[in-house]
Design goal:
Layout: H1 3-11, H2 16-33, H3 38-41, H4 49-54, H5 67-76, H6 79-82, E1 94-100, H7 107-121, E2 124-130, H8 132-145, E3 152-156, H9 160-163, H10 174-179, E4 195-196, E5 199-200, E6 202-204, E7 211-215, H11 222-230, H12 243-253, E8 257-258, E9 261-262, H13 278-289, H14 311-323, H15 336-344, E10 351-354, H16 357-364, E11 374-377, E12 385-387, E13 392-394, E14 405-406, E15 411-415, H17 423-436, H18 439-447, H19 462-468, H20 472-486, E16 492-493, H21 500-515, H22 521-539, H23 541-551
Parallel strand pairs: 1-2, 1-3, 14-16
Antiparallel strand pairs: 3-15, 4-5, 6-15, 7-10, 7-11, 8-9, 12-13
Helix pairs in contact: 1-20, 5-7, 7-17, 13-14, 19-20, 21-22
C-alpha cells in the first residue's frame, strides 16, 4: 500500500491495524471472488477504451447525470446487442416493463439506457413505475390473481420463491449468459441465487449488502474528542466498531454542536417501507443474532420457528427505542429514503447503514454535501452474540462478532414466461434484459446514482474508479466495505423463500407501533413471531422448512 493512501485512510478514521488488516483483506477478497489480485492492482490504462469513455459521462464531480447522459451511455454500450440482434429485428414488438421509480432512479435510468436499444431493434417498451413502498403489494396482487400484466420485471432474489417457484418466469437462454459475461458476478450472487429448480432466470444488475457509512470529520474532531474524554467516554473518540459503541456515541452527541450546527449520531429508519424497512432493523440485529456456528438467524432451520422474539432481536428492537430520543426530531417518521437521501447526504447525522448507493451518491448526487468527509466499513459488531442453540449470550475468543447483512441479494431483471409462446417477443425481452445487465454498462451504474452497487469482480478495479474521478482513499474504503461484506464468513444471507416480504411487511407494521411506544420490545417481538407462525402455516410449514434449509445450504 502506498504511503499517501495509508496516511489518508488513517486521517479518515482507520487505525494502523485496520489498514493492515484491510490490505490483507482486499487480497483475500480478490482471491475469493475469482478476480485475482490483478483486478485490484492492474494499471488504469488496462481499462477498455469504451469503459473509459462512458465513465466520463458526465464525469465524477461534474453534476448529477441526466436523461441525455443515460441515453448516451446506453447507445455506447449497444455493441453486445448488435452482435446478437439485427437492426430492426424486433419491429412490431411491444413489451411492458415493471420496476421502481425510487429516488428517480431504476426505471428512470432504464428508459434512457433502452431508448437507443429501442431505436436499433425496433421494439417499443411501455412502463409500470412503482414506489418502493408499493412494490411488494403490486407484485403479490399480480401473483395472487394470476394477472401478470408485464413482460419484464425488475425484481430482487427474495421474490424468486414467489415468482420463479410458481413457473411465472422464462428460463435464460445460453446466448444471454454469454452476452452479459455471467461468470464475472461475485461469488455470492452466482447460483443458487437467480435460479429455481436448477434453472437460471435472472440477469443480475446489482449486488446488495448494508455497509456502514460514517462522517470522517465528526470522528476526527478534536473538540468532540475532548468532550468525549471529559465526559467519561470509554476508549478513544473515533468511528464505532460495535453496536454498543454506536449506542454510546449516539447518546453522547445529543445536544452537541459541530461546525455550528446540531450534530447527531446514528439515524434509525422506523417508518414502514413496504417490507424493505425491515432490513434496517436486521442490520442492527445480525451481530447479535447470527452466531458463527449457526447459518440460521431468522428462523430455526428445522422447524421454521421464528427467532425474531429471541433475546438478540429484542435487544436490537430495544436499541432503536433507546436511541430515538437522541436522534433528530420526528425521526419516528423517517423511512430509509429519508435517512439516506434527505438526512445523511444533506449533512444530518454521522452514521447510517445503507446499501452501496450512498457510496456513489455522496460523490455524484447534487444534494450531497459530504463527498469529502464520508468513510465506510462493514456493519458494526457486537461484544457478545446470542447462541440460539444453547439459549445463552457468548463472548467469542476472537473478539466482537461481526455479521454483515447481505440484504436483498441485489436487483435483477427477469423475463416473464408469458413471452415464451412468441419467439420474436421472447428474444426481444431477453435482449432488453441483457442490455441492462451488460458488463460495461454495469460499471457506469456502480459509479453513478442508479440504485445499484458493485456486483461484479470487474467492479473492484480501484484504478478504474480513480481514473473516473474518485479519490483513491475514498474508493478504497468504499470497495473494501462492499467486498468484506460479500465475502465475510459470517454474513447473514437472505433466505429465498416464498412469502419472505409478507413476513417483513407484517413485522414492519408491528414494529411501527412498538417504536411509537404502544408496545414493549418483547411484546412487539412476540406479536411478530405469532404473525410469522401464522404465515408459515398458511404457506405450508413442511415446504418452507425445505426451502429455507436449501437457501442456507443445509439441504
Amino acid at each position: 500500500m502506498r504511503t499517501g493512501l495509508y496516511d489518508r485512510l488513517v486521517r479518515a478514521g482507520a487505525t494502523r491495524r485496520d489498514v493492515l488488516k484491510g490490505a490483507a483483506s482486499m487480497a483475500a477478497i480478490a482471491a475469493a471472488s475469482g478476480a485475482g489480485l490483478g483486478a485490484l492492482t492492474r494499471p488504469a490504462s488496462a481499462a477498455s477504451e469504451l469503459r473509459s469513455k462512458i465513465l466520463q459521462i458526465p464525469g465524477v464531480g461534474k453534476g448529477q447525470p441526466t436523461d441525455a447522459d443515460f441515453q448516451k451511455v446506453g447507445e455506447l454500450c449497444l455493441d453486445a446487442t448488435k452482435a446478437n440482434v439485427k437492426e430492426g429485428e424486433f419491429a412490431g414488438v411491444e413489451l411492458t416493463f415493471m420496476g421502481l421509480n425510487n429516488q428517480n432512479l431504476h426505471n428512470v435510468l432504464f428508459r434512457g439506457f433502452l431508448k437507443p436499444w429501442e431505436a436499433y431493434t425496433g421494439a417499443k417498451i411501455s412502463w409500470i413505475d412503482l414506489a418502493q413502498a408499493d412494490y411488494n403489494a403490486r407484485l403479490q396482487q399480480s401473483i395472487a390473481t394470476g394477472t401478470v400484466d408485464f413482460d419484464i420485471i425488475e425484481m430482487g432474489a427474495p421474490f424468486e420463491g414467489d415468482v420463479c417457484g410458481k413457473g411465472l418466469t422464462s428460463e435464460m437462454p445460453d446466448w444471454v449468459k454469454k452476452q452479459i459475461d455471467f461468470d464475472d458476478l461475485v461469488n455470492y450472487l452466482k447460483p443458487p441465487v437467480g435460479t429455481w429448480d436448477g434453472k437460471q432466470y435472472r440477469v443480475t444488475i446489482d449486488g446488495d449488502t448494508h455497509n456502514f457509512n460514517y462522517r470522517t470529520d465528526v470522528f476526527a474532531d478534536a473538540d468532540l474528542a475532548k468532550q468525549w474524554k471529559d465526559g467519561g467516554g470509554e476508549g478513544e473518540w473515533g468511528v464505532p466498531k460495535t453496536w454498543q459503541q454506536v449506542q454510546a456515541v449516539t447518546k453522547f452527541l445529543k445536544g452537541k454542536k459541530f461546525k455550528g450546527q446540531d450534530v447527531y449520531g446514528y439515524l434509525d429508519a422506523p417508518k414502514p417501507w413496504g417490507g424493505f424497512g425491515f432490513y434496517f432493523l436486521g442490520s442492527r440485529a445480525t451481530a447479535y443474532a447470527k452466531h458463527p456456528d449457526d447459518k440460521a438467524w431468522l428462523f430455526d432451520a428445522d422447524t421454521m420457528k421464528p427467532r425474531i422474539n429471541n433475546p438478540a432481536w429484542v435487544r436490537a428492537i430495544q436499541d432503536v427505542i433507546d436511541a430515538l430520543p437522541s436522534e433528530p426530531a420526528d425521526q419516528i417518521n423517517a423511512d430509509p429514503n429519508t435517512t439516506g437521501f434527505q438526512q445523511f447526504l444533506a449533512g444530518t447525522g454521522s452514521m447510517i447503514p445503507w446499501w452501496g448507493d450512498i457510496g456513489s451518491n455522496v460523490k455524484t448526487n447534487d444534494s450531497s454535501v459530504i463527498g469529502d468527509v464520508t468513510g465506510f466499513s462493514i456493519l458494526p459488531g457486537s461484544d457478545d452474540v446470542y447462541n440460539s442453540k444453547t439459549g445463552k449470550w457468548e463472548k467469542l475468543a476472537s473478539g466482537p462478532n461481526y455479521s454483515p447483512n447481505c440484504a436483498y441479494l441485489g436487483w435483477g431483471v427477469y423475463v416473464m414466461a408469458r413471452v415464451d409462446k412468441d419467439e420474436k417477443k421472447k428474444k426481444a425481452a431477453w435482449s432488453a434484459a441483457a442490455h441492462l445487465g451488460g458488463k460495461d454498462l454495469s460499471i457506469w451504474t456502480a459509479m453513478y446514482p442508479s440504485g445499484f452497487q458493485p456486483y461484479r469482480n470487474s467492479h473492484f478495479d480501484i484504478p478504474e474508479w480513480v481514473a473516473a474521478g474518485y479519490d483513491e482513499a475514498f474508493i478504497t474504503s468504499y470497495l473494501k466495505s462492499e467486498g468484506d461484506s460479500y465475502n465475510h464468513p459470517n454474513a447473514a444471507i437472505e433466505p429465498r423463500i416464498p412469502g419472505i416480504f409478507q413476513y417483513y411487511s407484517a413485522a414492519e407494521d408491528i414494529l411501527a407501533n412498538t417504536f411509537a411506544g404502544k408496545m414493549k420490545a418483547q411484546e412487539g417481538a412476540d406479536a411478530i413471531a405469532a404473525a410469522w407462525e401464522k404465515l408459515t402455516d398458511q404457506i405450508g410449514r413442511e415446504k418452507q422448512v425445505k426451502l429455507y434449509k436449501a437457501s442456507l445450504g443445509l439441504a
